[in-house]
Design brief:
Blueprint lengths: L7 H19 L3 E6 L25 E3 L4 E4 L6 E4 L6 E3 L7 E10 L2 E14 L5 E3 L3 E4 L11
Antiparallel strand pairs: 1-2, 1-6, 3-4, 4-9, 5-8, 6-7
Length: 149
């Protein structure tokens, strides 16, 4: 069986169309949050499973749009960057301190993406910060459909 492919020049057009329809529209109200419970997010994880950070100075980081799209030259994967810049969370005092285990991108009360950090981060000192780089990678794979009875 043969597989249909899209040459690089057409993938750029597809990337632009997907970005315009999906990421600029339906994902235009996302936020990046930090969580402080010792959990490894999985496929069944829901927002209620995460304990949101509450260290002094913390606030969810709003993402206005995911519309800076391109293909990673090294991998060929679609990369979609936040047009709102990269989230930065800064401890502004020591009234409330947290151990931060990870981050999540949420929208409408649902987790879109979640990640546990390799090493938890102690937010316990005024001026301490967590700087994140938000990038979504995607790869389109096309092929004939099949099923078994």
């Amino acid at each position: 069986m043969s597989t249909m492919i899209g040459p690089n020049e057409s993938l750029d057009q597809i990337i632009g169309a997907l970005s315009a329809s999906i990421f600029k529209g339906s994902l235009a109200t996302t936020s990046v949050i930090l969580f402080k419970n010792d959990i490894t997010p999985g496929l069944a994880t829901v927002l209620a499973d995460l304990t949101l950070a509450d260290f002094t100075g913390y606030a969810p980081y709003p993402v206005a749009a995911w519309d800076n799209t391109s293909r990673d030259p090294a991998t060929g994967l679609l990369q979609i960057l936040s047009a709102s810049g990269n989230p930065s969370f800064v401890q502004t005092g020591t009234t409330i301190v947290n151990t931060i285990y990870g981050q999540a991108v949420i929208d409408g009360g649902k987790i879109l993406l979640a990640e546990r950090f390799d090493t938890p981060v102690e937010m316990d000192t005024t001026g301490k910060r967590i700087d994140l780089f938000q990038k979504i990678f995607a790869q389109a794979v096309y092929g004939p459909g099949s099923y078994e009875d």
